[in-house]
Amino acid sequence: MYDVSTRKRALALVAQGRSLNAVSKETGISRAAIRSWQTRTEPRRRGHSCVRCRDRPSPPENPASYAYLLGLYLGDGCISAGRRGVYAMRIVCDNTWPGVIDACEEALRDVHPHNSVCRVKKQGCVAVTSSSKHWPCLFPQHGPGKKHDRRIALEPWQTEIVDSHPWEFVRGLIHSDGCRITNWTTRLVAGRPKRYEYPRYFFTNKSDDIRGLYTGILDKLGVVWTHCTRHGNPYNISVARRADVALMDTHVGPKH
After folding, report:
1. Which of 14, 70, 142, 176 could serve as 79's disulfide partner, Cβ 3.0–4.6 Å?
2. Is residue 233 part of a domain?
């Protein structure tokens, strides 16, 4: 059991834009408990209005989670039209990374707390899904066709969120279309070959615009990156310098 002051402190941290995961780690309180307190203090409202459709549009309720979810969506997400004007947001996550699946579900609940989230099992992956009439309002990058075949640009209000929570955005992109790997090479030392290993981050996406969003935010964060062209295609962005990898490890880390 937690006293009232503990609950208020946890909810205040969430109100500052912190993710449930971050607040849970700082306070030692489970995400489920914090989410239940939110439900009690902010009960579900029937007929609630979309934050982007109001007379005075406002940002999503949890900007840090939104920045993370935006990164996931640009990498492995899609929005599909259904019946009666309802849209399904789907983020496809590899079964290899259960922690990413949990983080994706949490972000969907944080960004749109009035709608349920489900997991649809597929071969080798899970589609984390939530339905709403307003997903295109929250993600105006939605459109016909594949993302790399159309222009992808952030709205000014999205740019403000990403600039305020850049590492959450980077983490979402890496969790969708990126990875942390260990490379190796050999060098001659005293006439004998010696193996050296070093970690690096890769981000791979066919969209020039999405890669530009990724490298643009890395530039703002002071992270040095390079193109790693394969078969003539500049789809891969590499971060390999030791100091930059250490910075990425602090804020992103390997998938889990």
Report:
1. 142
2. yes
Residue 209 lies in a domain: yes
Angle between helices 156-164 and 208-221 (to 10 degrees): 40
Q: Report yes or no: 251 and 167 within 8 Å, Cβ to Cβ.
A: yes
164-221 residue pLDDT tens? 999 999 999 999 999 999 987 777 787 888 877 889 999 999 999 999 999 999 999 9
Give which of 251, 231, 87, 110 is closest to 168, Cα–Cα: 251
d(CA 107, CA 176): 14
Per the structure, the complete domain to which residue 222 belongs is given by 173-251
pTM: 0.79
Number of structural domains (the chain) is 2
Q: What gap in Å lies between CA 192 and CA 104, rounded to an integer?
A: 47
CB 51 within 8 A of CB 60: yes
**Crossing angle of helices 208-221 and 63-76, rounded to 10°:** 140
**DSSP-assigned states of every residue in 17-73:** T--HHHHHHHH---HHHHHHHHHHHS---TTPPPTTTSSS----S-HHHHHHHHHHH
